[in-house]
Predict the 3D structure of the following.
Amino acid sequence: MFGERGQATFSLLIVVAVVAVAVILLQRTAWHAEHINDKAGVIATTGGGINTATQAVLKLGRTNELAGSILETAKPLEGKLDEIVRLAKSVDGLATSINSSASTINGTARGINGTAGTILNTARSINDGVAQINTNLDDTLRLARAIKEDTGNILTGARTADSDLACIENGALTGAGSVPDPVPC
């Protein structure tokens, strides 16, 4: 009798522990999702500045055309033109650096998107787990009610047996059966 009761109590404790862990994991997931959302906002703001900076990169072809025209016109100024070419190469290096930064930010944004998908899948899994825990808890409660009913029946039977034993010890119980209920022993 105590073994079944202990098992039911143990099962109930396990279910409560699992529910607590699931709530904690769900709370952590929501916290991480909020922080990822904040970081995504920062990246979007930063990306706007990069978009403005890359417009200069798009005009680089036209800049190279103008540099060629200047080269023809300024051949007598070759020393100064060499300086202009050096500056043009510097602008080209800056454009490459900007492209590299844009690629890194794009990769980071994709990583955040992947993490958000993982968090969403985890949240769905936790939700499914909570639903299963609720189902298990309902089953455990049904079982506990049945055990309580059985325990009540056993207690009633034990009281009747105790009463019958007292009657036998007092000699009130005959060989023909038990004493009728209204007659105390």
The chain has a mean pLDDT of 81. Residues 2-168 form a domain with the Helix Hairpins fold (CATH 1.10.287.2610). The helical segments are 2-58, 60-73, 78-170.
